[in-house]
Design brief:
By secondary structure, the chain is mostly helical. Helices cover about 70% and strands about 0% of the residues. It is built from 4 helices and no strands. The chain starts with a helix and ends with a helix. Bound molecules: zinc ion.
């Protein structure tokens, strides 16, 4: 893969990472503030909101963020765009759609993986 293409995918990955981080910060800002004057009710509301946020971040954004970080590492190592299972180049169309993927379409379908 050409250096120019790699730079392009790197930009895509960084943009997506920023987007996810911003969304996470936004969600965190919606949490009620931790106050000691409102008593148990507020504490419980905050605990509930935090638990919900944590679950959501862990299940969706967290997984994607990790996949993006791993893709950035592969760019640095020079293995980006190569399927980790069969070592074939991943198609350009697939990388355009999901630049953080580490599997070609065939292997993805075989593994039923989420990446
Ligand atoms: Zn493959």
């Amino acid at each position: 893969m050409s250096r120019r293409n790699l730079q392009r995918y790197k930009r895509l990955l960084l943009a997506k990472r920023d987007e996810l981080s911003a969304a996470r910060d936004e969600a965190a800002a919606l949490l009620p503030p931790a106050g000691d004057s409102e008593g148990d009710l507020m504490d419980r509301a905050r605990a509930d909101a935090e638990a919900e946020l944590q679950t959501r971040v862990r299940q969706t954004d967290g997984r994607l963020l990790r996949a993006i970080e791993e893709a950035l590492i592969r760019i640095r190592r020079g293995t980006f765009g190569v399927c980790e299972a069969c070592k074939s180049p991943i198609s350009k169309a697939r990388l355009e759609a999901v630049p953080w993927t580490h599997l070609c379409r065939d292997c993805k379908e075989r593994k039923h993986s989420t990446a």
